[in-house]
Amino acid sequence: MFIGNWRHRPNRDAAKWLIQEVWPLVRKDLPDALLNVYGANQTPEDAALHDVSIGAQVQGYCRSVPAAMQRHLLLVAPLRYGAGVKGKVLEALQHGLVVVTTAVGIEGIASAESFPGYVATAQDPAEFASVVVQALQDQQRWEAGEWFLWLIRC
């Protein structure tokens, strides 16, 4: 899943890049993988990114972030710019999701070496997609609950 207010430019950029550039590459390796994109304030242009052929579903406003997160295994936050601590990353970890993000996504949270999720580059869609595929296939890691344990230690 991805979540972010469409009005915030870094979120809109990340969602568009994820759907248009990254997700088609994920689907080449995992043809049944689905991406749910949640976010308030979407425009008709944002809604038009919904693409059943690649399993990208633009869901719109999310009434309950915890409920949505409980239905997913993975948060993908391919943030290419922005500032400050990313609430979506911390909330995903709190709910036990595996997180794939960028160096921008972990700013103020952890270093790339100590972050319990996956940190990929936001420059190369193929590399980012490869990391998403790796995370989706790493069942042992997300079943171990190490994401939540990392939060407790912080």
From TrEMBL:
<protein>
    <recommendedName>
        <fullName>Glycosyltransferase</fullName>
    </recommendedName>
</protein>
<dbReference type="Pfam" id="PF13692">
    <property type="entry name" value="Glyco_trans_1_4"/>
</dbReference>
